[in-house]
Automatic annotation (TrEMBL), chains B, C:
Residues 11-346 form the FAD/NAD(P)-binding domain. Belongs to the class-I pyridine nucleotide-disulfide oxidoreductase family. This is Dihydrolipoyl dehydrogenase. PROSITE patterns: PYRIDINE_REDOX_1. The keyword Disulfide bond applies. One of its GO terms (molecular function) is dihydrolipoyl dehydrogenase (NADH) activity. InterPro entries: Class-I_Pyr_Nuc-Dis_Oxidored, FAD/NAD-bd_sf, FAD/NAD-binding_dom, FAD/NAD-linked_Rdtase_dimer_sf, Lipoamide_DH, Pyr_nuc-diS_OxRdtase, Pyr_nucl-diS_OxRdtase_dimer, Pyr_OxRdtase_I_AS. It comes from Natronorubrum daqingense. It catalyses: N(6)-[(R)-dihydrolipoyl]-L-lysyl-[protein] + NAD(+) = N(6)-[(R)-lipoyl]-L-lysyl-[protein] + NADH + H(+). Its EC number is 1.8.1.4. PANTHER family: DIHYDROLIPOYL DEHYDROGENASE (PTHR22912:SF160), DISULFIDE OXIDOREDUCTASE (PTHR22912). SUPFAM superfamilies: FAD/NAD(P)-binding domain, FAD/NAD-linked reductases, dimerisation (C-terminal) domain. Keywords: Disulfide bond, FAD, Flavoprotein, NAD, Oxidoreductase, Redox-active center. The active site is a redox-active disulfide bond.
């Protein structure tokens, strides 16, 4: 199904490069909290979430 | 060519070399997969041979002539003569250049090319039958398959495409003379694009449409300029009628159009019925009522691949069918039946097979109608957005306020942008007007990147360009457009 | 109109109603500032009256005719007749529509309009002198001023614009007959745009340029298709020569072009000098060697505002001059002398005055040359990027591999994208080819938003469009373009 419509809940305003990163890390983006302007999910948020997922430490920028 | 039954093996078998299949094959080759691409007819599929490319070639060429013929306002007086066979052979040259390009690109990316028709034998075997010279067949074992067999025009009862005066879009793109008159059945995008081409070639065109307007699915404000220009071109419309039969009373054919909800359906009197039934005497009738997936000639069952009741192969966000190692991409995998959708799916399937973290997760899928003027849309309309639970804000900019549009003499239409009011995220856009097909790209990127209205409005756009209208629409949604009054 | 000396006051005085000034005024009005816009000649400034708009109107109109006349390959046979006075009056109609639009938009945004010439009296006072009917002058006190007086063509020695056969770009856009022959002095973008217009109107055009190529500042690969098409149009080029004098031996004028680094400069023999000197007998000579700021007729010193030695008013990232409450925007504030740069600065100045946190901090400033084909650039070239310490990767896509370009019969040129290799951030792009002016918008947004090559490459682009070439160039930079071979 290639339906592009989403609901405010499942639509994530994240650029392709970060969506791919999240998939690489096996992350569900809807569970990542955005710390960027307007609640945007940033690369750092994804790194932090995958580190937490792995039970590991977040690597500092 | 191999005659008889030989079994070879491939890692990835791609069936169909349209924009879904050949892109899948090239990408698979780039990812160092061993890939075989089987095509029964012509590289490039419907799109390059009988769809996107030839239609756009004829649209552009007839526009060049029509544009010059109607530029008296600009001080240009021309009476261009069109030589259809010259135009068609130019178009064929464009197609040849592109299809031979596809073949070369496949080879350069180590794709093995096989001419023939593929059918499934079991979950891991296909039979490839060759017609013509290399007649016979061979078996091919595969680890993964990508089904990309595309779609074909839907026929309507009593209008068999085998009868000479009844044509489909493919034949309409390869006529060798301009018909005096033509009925187009179906006012979808294919019907409307071809109606304009023929009207510009000088044909008297009548469009018969079951519904009550052109381009079902598009918002009324987008259709209006297209309908207007079609009227200006002399195209006649018969809405809420279906083409029910045709016969040949004399040289011309007579196409009968019955009202959909008319007297007949309501058990009316014979007179009432007669009054609503139309008889259209024309040279040809083009049936363009939609396309259906090519999934019934593949023995899909042998591989255990399921389709829905329309024949569409159901897939997940990895382009996978219900059988894990078999993928389906392009028209055969369902709506929207558009080339770029198929290419994106093809690329995804190849990457998934190669073990990459790819998925069909695009936020923006544009659709373009190459009518006069063009329509292009992406993402959500205002209504969609409301239904999805957003609180949409809409910004609009009319091309008649665009300096660039006025300098091209073509200033009908507008850019509309839909965003979430609370945070400004762009949710969708629609454009009708000059270069709509190109202007939509910026909005696709905006949506894909998660841009806000402010992002689009603060990006400097070159002057004088049509793309400034995108910026102005965003500013209008924010309440501070410069070149139009704000809401 | 008021005669004599009356003093009124305004919060924001904007001097000059070009795209920098009128945008500043409208934005100030939207922000509820009390704003007065003074213009001495015509709303819309150079851009709407004598620059961007009339030039693009004539470029497009001559292209319509030229396109049809050269479409035999497409099966179109036309021999369009151009009636220049018709074309010019159409162009004037477009200009009128836009300039009266500007006037209306100003009024709708509560901008007070004042016709006259402004000069500074002191830091907080300007004198507005009216010519014609309402002759006289008045004083205007202001809290803030925005100087937006634009630029004018640079004259060269011995070629006074007052002499009839010597024209500037403004006059070239308002000729009432097509000259048989024309020398264009200067192969910058204005000279090249107008050279094409006249060549397409049938004039024998010779371009005399001091440097050794057209369009100084642009990369060679971008210039090549433009130079090629100019040659095809019959435009002659005389490089490394300056126009030194002209006289009227008979009906035509004779323009003398001296070599820049020739025998004369090197103390050569009289014969050597004569050999290199060229005499061009033509009907008119268009001087287009650049533009200079209009800052010398304003009594800027009275307000204490400083300029550099070229007369350009220096400003900071808030568009502020050295005097805190006086701003300068548009051409008078320096390069790039482009309308959209001026509008952006005008908008910023108005917002800063209103206390908003605005700044000139755009990452992407496009530049477009409306030659045939068009050139559009934004951000850094590969060389720029290296010099700035980046490690650039370049992706390219030729339009001859674009299905859409081939269907328009216009497939010269390419899209090039420059990014940082390590993280893929897009740094710049350049395009030469069809619709370059529109295609650049997506890349401006990409740069402005900090997009990477992957973002651009993963965005679905509609098929068949020229914008797919942008995506393919990004894919090429990543090493996996579909429709071209990768590096
Ligand atoms: C007139 C017209 C205009 C169009 N204009 C546009 C447009 O402007 N933009 C747009 O995006 N879309 C347009 N489309 C739609 C577009 O053509 C399709 O969406 C696109 O071609 C689908 O690609 P595909 O690869 O899925 O299938 P196709 O292009 O249909 O290719 C399928 C290929 O599979 C081959 N095949 C089928 N079965 C077998 C088999 N068993 N064995 C071997 N080979 C097989 C076929 O021969 C064919 O070559 C247009 C269509 C038409 C008809
Ligand atoms: C032939 C040509 C083609 C061009 N094409 C393009 C193009 O395609 N794209 C592009 O971006 N740019 C183009 N330009 C450049 C563009 O026109 C300028 O960059 C733009 O007009 C600058 O805007 P501005 O508001 O700074 O100044 P201007 O547009 O020059 O406006 C200044 C205004 O100030 C008025 N004025 C001056 N002094 C006073 C005074 N003392 N009191 C009152 N009023 C005063 C003038 O009458 C004028 O109306 C082109 C220029 C030319 C000549």
């Amino acid at each position: 199904d290639t339906e592009e419509t989403g609901t405010p809940q499942d639509r994530v305003f994240v650029p392709p490069r970060l969506r791919r990163k999240a998939r690489e890390d096996g992350l569900d983006l809807s569970s990542v909290r955005g710390s960027g302007p307007g609640g945007r999910i940033t690369a750092a948020d994804i790194r932090a979430a995958s580190a937490a997922d792995d039970g590991g430490q977040e690597t500092p920028d | 060519m191999v005659v008889g039954d030989v079994t070879t093996a491939t890692d990835v078998l791609v069936i169909g070399a349209g924009p879904a299949g050949y892109v899948a094959a090239i990408r698979a080759g780039q990812l160092d997969l061993d890939v075989t691409l089987v095509e029964k007819e012509a590289y490039g599929g419907t799109c390059l041979n009988h769809g996107c490319i030839p239609s756009k070639a004829l649209i552009t060429a007839t526009d060049v002539a029509h544009g010059a013929a109607t530029a008296e306002e600009m001080g240009i007086h021309a009476d261009p003569a069109i030589d259809l066979s010259g135009m068609v052979s130019w178009k064929d040259g464009v197609v040849d250049q592109l299809t031979s390009g596809v073949e070369k690109l496949c080879k350069a990316n180590q794709v093995s090319l096989l001419e023939g028709t593929a059918t499934f034998v079991d979950e891991h075997t296909a039979r490839i039958s060759h017609s013509g010279e290399g007649q016979g067949s061979e078996s091919l074992e595969f680890e993964h398959a990508i089904v990309a067999t595309g779609s074909r025009p839907i026929a309507i009862p009593d209008f068999s495409f085998d009868a000479d005066p009844v044509i489909d879009s493919r034949q309409a793109l390869a006529l060798d003379s301009v018909p005096d008159s033509l009925v187009v059945v179906g006012a979808g995008y294919i019907g409307m694009e071809l109606a304009s081409v023929y009207a510009k070639l000088g044909t008297d065109v009548t469009v018969v449409e079951m519904l009550d307007s052109i381009l079902p699915g598009y918002d009324d404000d987008l259709k209006r300029p297209v309908k207007q220009r079609a009227n200006d071109l002399g195209i006649e419309f018969v809405f809420e009628h279906t083409a029910s039969e045709w016969y040949e009373p004399d040289e011309d054919i007579r196409v009968v159009a019955e009202p959909v909800d008319g007297a007949a359906a309501n058990g009316g009197s014979a007179e009432a019925i007669d009054e609503e039934r139309l008889e259209l005497d024309v040279e040809k009738v083009l049936v363009a009522v939609g396309r259906e997936p090519v999934s019934d000639t593949l023995d899909l069952e042998a591989a255990g691949v399921e389709t829905d009741d329309r024949g569409i192969i159901q897939t997940d966000t990895r382009a996978r069918t219900n059988v894990d190692h078999i993928f389906a991409v392009g028209d055969v995998a369902g709506e929207p039946m558009l080339a770029h959708k198929g290419s994106m799916e093809g690329q995804t399937a190849a990457e998934v097979i190669a073990g990459e973290p790819a998925a069909i997760d695009h936020q923006a899928m544009p659709a373009v109608v190459f009518t006069d003027p063009e329509i292009a849309t992406v993402g959500l309309t205002e209504t969609d957005a409301e239904e999805a639970g957003y609180d949409p804000v809409v910004g609009q900019f009319p091309f008649r306020a665009s300096g660039r549009a006025l300098t091209t003499g073509d200033a009908d239409g507008f850019v509309k942008i839909v965003a979430e009011e609370s945070d400004g995220y762009v949710l969708g856009a629609s454009i009708v007007g000059p270069e709509a097909s190109e202007l939509i790209a910026e909005l696709c990127l905006a949506i894909e990147l998660g841009a806000t209205l402010e992002d689009v409005a603060s990006t400097v756009h070159a002057h004088p360009t049509l793309s400034e209208s995108v910026m102005e629409a965003a500013e209008n949604a924010l309440g501070h457009a410069i070149h139009t009054l704000n809401r």
